[in-house]
Amino acid sequence: MNLQFSDRSITVAIVGCGGFIGCHLLKAIFERTSWRVFGVDLESYRIQEHLANDRFEFLCADLADSAVVARIAQYPVVVNLAAICTPGRYMAEAAEVIRSNYDHPRALADACAKSGSWLIHFSTSEIYGKTAADSPALEEDFSEIVLGPVAASRWSYATAKLLTERYMAGLAGLNWTVVRPFNFVGPFMDFMPGIDGEGIPRVLANFSTALVRGETLKLVNGGAAKRCFTSVHDAVDFIFSLLTHADAGVGQAFNVGNGDNEVSIAELAALMRSVFASVKDVPESDVPGVEVVSGEDYYGKGYDDSLRRLPLVAKAENLLGFKAKIPLRTALEESLRWFVGHYDLRHCEP
Fold it and tell me: What torsion do the CA atoms of 209, 215, 220, 225 make, to the nearest 10 degrees?
């Protein structure tokens, strides 16, 4: 597969182009290539600056429409970023989470297999399941996967994503690549509850919301779980490395993360308090503290957790020449500066 960034005849389809990752990828494609983009999403507020671009066609739709799926699969490269990935919804809307993360991507995979498109599918690091506090680093092709019990509906998202991966890998004629993100962070991530979304977003947006509103940061089960946080700019660079080395990436699953940025959620809260004080130019003693809450009280019945999620990333480096570089504090500062600037305090009363 020979993809030249200067080739004006290439159109790439991006499903979820208006989302957090999608808006950054869209901008980078227009800046780094001569390609056209066919974008599909249910919202466009993050990509308003691109709607008048003559290299961009935007369709407000989703993968539930079979005609939309068929149209997407007409293009040689399809990037599927669409997903329900809000933790609070895993418990409250498990059936819809499974439909969104398995039924619809499966239909897109079938269409791409038929048309010959290369499908770059964004999965999740959650597919590695219920890891222990001393879990070793996770390797794409060898780590064993243990998901929680059926009663713990928190695993509905991971189960659907894993089944989609297995379906794609077993689908004859499909050119596929799976991307497993490890906590991408950056501007435009998630939402502020009550302002531009409802429910409970991911931890970075949770903490950012609390800081902006002057509320305590909630540490679920004490914040003992560990995660690796990865700048969305590193994520975009990974995609370009993949596009550059297409032949090496087809038929592979890749961890995309930064192992140097591993912290416990309690440590993340402390670091975010420090960064917020710097961003606002106030003493750290003036920044809200933390409060320990139980997972069930915070997220609802069916909550369960993975205690450590550290990626091995040698495969991406060996096959694609990619390695994440942006330090955690740098990524958090950019995220928080955007969040503070984006959400006017006058409109952020709880």
Answer: 60
What CA–CA distance (Å, rounded) separates 190 from 236? 17
φ, ψ of residue 137 to 5 degrees: the values are -60, 150
Report pLDDT digits (tens) over 131-172. 999 999 999 999 999 998 888 888 889 999 999 999 999 999
Pairing of strands 290-293, 11-15: unpaired
Q: Is residue 157 flagged as an active site residue?
A: yes
320/322 Cα distance (integer angstroms): 5
Closest CA to 270 of 253, 290, 250: 290
- What span, in angstroms and rounded, lies between the C-alpha atoms of 331 and 15? 25
Q: What are the φ/ψ torsions at residue 319 (nearest 5 degrees)? A: -90, -30
pTM for the model stands at: 0.94
Q: What is the DSSP string of 205-273?
A: HHHHHHHHHT-PEEEEGGG--EEE-EEHHHHHHHHHHHHHTHHHHTTEEEEE--GGGEEEHHHHHHHHH
The one catalytic residue in 157, 299, 303, 343 is: 157
